[in-house]
Task: structure prediction
Amino acid sequence: MAQQQSTAAPAPEPQRRIPKQPECNIGTSGHVDSGKCLSWDSYVLLEGVPLRGEQIFEKVKQNGVLVNKVDGGTVYAFQGSHVVSLTNRLETRLAESSLFVQRYSGPMYSILGSTGRKVKVTPDHPLLINREGRLQWIKAKEILVGDYSAFARTVPLEESLVLPDPMEDFRRNYRVVGWERYEELSTLTEGFTSLSALTTDQFEDMRILLRLSKRRLSIAARVDFSVYSSIERLEKAPSVEQRARLVMAFGSAKPVPLALGEFLAERKVGNARRIRLLKEVGLDADTVKWFAFVWSEGTSTDSRVHVTQTVQRRMLEEFLSITSNRFGQSPAEYPGGNFQIHSKPFVDYLGLRFDYKPGNESTCGIADWVCRLPKELKALFLRWFFTLDGGFEGRGTVSLTQLNERNIVIVAYLLHSFGIVPR
Result:
């Protein structure tokens, strides 16, 4: 019963002065027992992404418009409200919806199918049932053991995806020097040979290109760290002697060339301010493979990504190659097939660019954008994810066990988009 929520029959239109509402999977403008209400923690496929009822309500609070209040509940219209619905010919289509929210203290019915599919609904929620060869809408409280519940064979998922540009938000916490700034400073300093005319801002970017932390530079230049910090914050102008020492300290280092798409980042606050090399990362087959590997085999913190793999050696080698060539990172290797990327700027960039949420398997789950990938990349993601985390049995059964319930839901919808009905 993976798609019961998209097969609910239209409720009789209530005799109230409320605009006629499209199909809505949490509730409609009718009374709660008019038959369209799911539990607060049920998943609904909204704009091609599975969301719980409470997540949809949070979305509505941000951009929704109150349409009316009725029966102790509220009706909202909101942007991005497309759900999977049925035509009169029982064909799936996308339809706009509204949200009805009501505090409900009555009974809930859990309908469990023989394949393991389950849905929790209010008593009068209708499901499309085949009873003794006749297809009909039957309320949840009237369903009998032995009935057959219909669900969509194929679920249409979005295939349009635009990732956010992370750099504006990233620069709020990091000082960033990219390839264009590298080229500009190279020209300005005649190939990094004439540094005396640099402004304080240019001087700071030059320091980052040389990968010298403020503390290391102040030690090398024999300038007190607090004095250098005041100079950097434009609170104090350096003396002629101090500036000469700083330029001399620069002369002992050479910047490593940056390529197009590469940038250096230093955190603006905090004690640990190591300068890290990062790459701008787009979405392609390599990116999809990398995230499938991390979400199936990895854990992370806000400053580290950790993966373990001892069986699929070729996939591990490809993952490490992608990590180096596409992401610009060099994982540290530990015994037992363990690899770790130690870089807070890298984890922060992943969060802003790919909505990556660090944590263990139960919290670091598959991101929404996977549901909107082009079909060929959806297939690639599934192939890597199942190969790494799935079980393959002799009778042709492929199984998947996850602590993260939402990962299971997303994978099920991805399979369903190919007409593969998981049990």
User: Anything to note?
Assistant: The CA atoms of residues 221 and 245 lie 5 Å apart.
